[in-house]
Amino acid sequence: MGYQLSLEDISVHLGNEQVLQDVSFTLNAGEFLGVIGPNGAGKSTLLKVILGIIKPNKGRITPQNKNSVIGYVPQSRPMDMGNTIAVKDFVSMGLPHSIRPWLTKKEKHMVNEIIALTQIGEFSHKSISELSGGQKQRVYLAQALARQPKIMLLDEPTSNLDPAAQEQVTSIVRDTSNKLGIGVIFISHDLNLVSQYADRILYLTKGNYAIGTVGEMMKSSVLSQLYGTKVEANADGNSFHISQSNQSEPISSYSYNGTE
Q1: Which CATH architecture describes the domain 1-68+150-218?
Q2: Domain extents in the chain
Q3: Is 106:129 a contact under the CB 8 Å cutoff?
Q4: Which Gene3D superfamilies does this chain map to (predicted)?
Q5: Could you tell me which of 94, 135, 117 has the C-alpha nearest to residue 178?
Q6: How far is CA 104 from CA 101, 108, 237, in A?
Q7: What is the pLDDT along the chain (260 residues), one digit of tens a residue?
């Protein structure tokens, strides 16, 4: 059986605020879990708990492989030293033994495979400072993959990208998850984008959560809890039209690939 990450009854208090309460789920090998919720709902806190940066007040995390490695792509990162480094060298820095001044033949092959997988070969000779936002995100993903992770945590990797770049980055993450059997936790504010690629969706609100397949989560009761107001979700084929009560304009509409 592949790697599994299990969270059991995770609760986090920050000051007097209940950020996460009794959150439980299992991430399977090769699974893409999209995480959605309003600002301050605890999405980034969840990743920090998994990374061990924040200790939960309650609950436990159970890795079933003690040698597991986590790949992490933050929402933003300072590039003070990376501005002038070449993309290929930057990716190589993610290798477990990157402290050495040389790469083995196997490591060079691995870097080349990752560059091909993340579709950054055409600019692998350029410096980070020459890249667009979407290209940088793919490079950050490549460096994280060089760690040979069992799971990947991505904190809003498509924020501030144009729609085409958002689709490309998310598609690459999905393909990578499939090909390498890596479990993915992908935070986003774009429900439309996530619903096209995720196996399951985790909704977080302050102190509450819900998790299920795309079809299971697109229910009026679940969406009303998420948005904090009454929301009607009407299915039309593979498209959901979500509208707020007493308003004529929809607050969101999107399509999904999958079945209930």
Answers
A1: 3-Layer(aba) Sandwich (3.40)
A2: 1-68+150-218, 81-147
A3: no
A4: P-loop containing nucleotide triphosphate hydrolases (3.40.50.300)
A5: 117
A6: 10, 6, 52
A7: 578 899 999 999 988 889 999 999 999 999 999 998 888 889 999 999 999 999 999 999 988 555 678 999 987 776 545 578 899 999 999 998 766 677 889 999 999 999 999 999 999 999 988 898 899 999 999 999 999 999 999 999 998 889 999 999 999 999 999 999 999 999 998 877 888 899 999 999 877 888 999 878 877 787 777 777 776 766 654 555 555 555 433 333 333 333 33
Residue 202 has a CB neighbour count (10 Å cut-off) of: 24
Neighbour-count burial for 250-259, b at 16+ CB within 10 Å, e otherwise: eebebebeee
Asked whether 257 and 192 are in contact (CB, 8 A), the reply is: no
Query: Rounded CA gap, 127 and 87, in Å?
Result: 6
